[in-house]
Amino acid sequence: MPDIAAELSAAQQAYLDNAPPFTSTVQAAAFIKAASKLLMLTPMTSGTREGNVGFDVKLIADERKDAQKWLDAHGGSEAIVGGPITSSGAPSVTRASFRNFRD
Asked: SS3 for 87?
């Protein structure tokens, strides 16, 4: 089972290390990946019997969108591992066909 605390800590560090202003497409791509991980790993609310705290992840999502716009404007959508990024922010998928494959 993965160590969520370690993954969250690594995502937070990558987010901070690659924060804007961007100097390269690789940095912007790393920021987008870190922001995506943070959005998945950060709880919306957390608490105990004594109190609760809520986290607004909208800022992270907005920063990820801005980074994606910067990356698209600088021709760096290829920098994301997995190929070009679609408008949704996910890597595009290439499908292979073996229709004319011969032994």
From this structure: coil
**Model-level pTM greater than 0.85?**
no
Mean pLDDT of 34-60: 90
The Cα-based distances of 7 to 2, 11, 66, 73 in angstroms read 8, 6, 24, 30
Which residue, among 85, 86, 74, 92, has the nearest Cα to 25 in the 3D structure? 74
70, 22 Cβ separation under 8 angstroms: yes
Distance CA 92, CA 85 (A): 6
Q: Which residues are paired to 45 by β-bridges? A: 54
Q: Where are the domains of the chain?
A: 4-79
Of 83, 62, 59, 85, residue with least CA distance to 72: 85
Model confidence pLDDT, tens digit, residues 55-77: 888 999 999 999 999 998 988 76
